[in-house]
Design a protein that fits this description.
Blueprint lengths: L1 E4 L3 H10 L6 H19 L5 E8 L2 E8 L4 E7 L3 H10 L4 E2 L1 E6 L6 E7 L8 E9 L3 H12 L4 E9 L1 H10 L4 E7 L2 E2 L5 E2 L5 H6 L3
Parallel strand pairs: 1-10, 4-5, 4-6, 4-8, 8-9, 9-10
Antiparallel strand pairs: 2-3, 6-7, 11-12
Helix pairs in contact: 1-2, 2-3
The chain binds 1-O-pyrophosphono-5-O-phosphono-alpha-D-ribofuranose, uracil and magnesium ion.
Pathway: Pyrimidine metabolism; UMP biosynthesis via salvage pathway; UMP from uracil: step 1/1
Keywords: Allosteric enzyme, Glycosyltransferase, GTP-binding, Magnesium, Nucleotide-binding, Transferase
GO molecular function, one term: uracil phosphoribosyltransferase activity
Amino acid sequence: MKVVEVKHPLIRHKVGLMREADISTKRFRELATEVGSLLTYEATADFETEKVTIDGWNGPIEVEKIKGKKVTVVPILRAGLGMMDGVLEHIPSAKISVVGIYRDEETLEPVPYFDKLVSNVEERVAIVVDPMLATGGSLIATIDLLKSRGCKSIKALILVAAPEGVKALEEAHPDIELYTASIDECLNENGYILPGLGDAGDKIFGTK
Ligand SMILES: O=P(O)(O)OC[C@H]1O[C@H](OP(=O)(O)OP(=O)(O)O)[C@H](O)[C@@H]1O
Ligand SMILES: O=c1cc[nH]c(=O)[nH]1
Ligand SMILES: [Mg+2]
């Protein structure tokens, strides 16, 4: 599996700010969008361009445009919604496929409760967004679903990942690409990432 831990100073700085215990909902949300945007920049670096001729101010000129890439952004509810605008900043015409999965607090197993994928998902690059990759269960279940509907090209953008989740993802789906702002130390006994961000969904939505 292609795993890219993006070590750009802007990303490291912003993720550091997100780790503050008393960060406000507003600030956490802003930073989730900003880091989502920076991860999108990295994750799209392999998109091919083609030359097209346009009318420039001084006559016809050749410019580059992205070659026939159709994208669907896949936020995993709820917390994934907090990164979605960061992707759409760069790919405003992307279609959105929503997947609702929560993690059972006792068993840590993913519990699917909603999905609405675009109809031609098999023709699209899926960019899955979720701030946290802990055990990996939620992301693996999302990719299982996308593949079962014919999706062949999948990139996951994650703010903070646990090594345990990266390993589980690699075993389940070695053909996908993972872009993350940080691979942290470990999971605690409750399945939370250390040092991590705490409960990203609660921080984005202001719930406790
Ligand atoms: O890798 P895993 O062990 O599956 O854990 C990660 C999942 O847990 C969080 O969602 P949560 O279940 O808290 O739902 P929420 O986004 O609705 O808060 C997070 O946003 C991931 O989706
Ligand atoms: O650390 C974690 C693990 C799962 N979900 C979160 O929001 N945070
Ligand atoms: Mg949550």
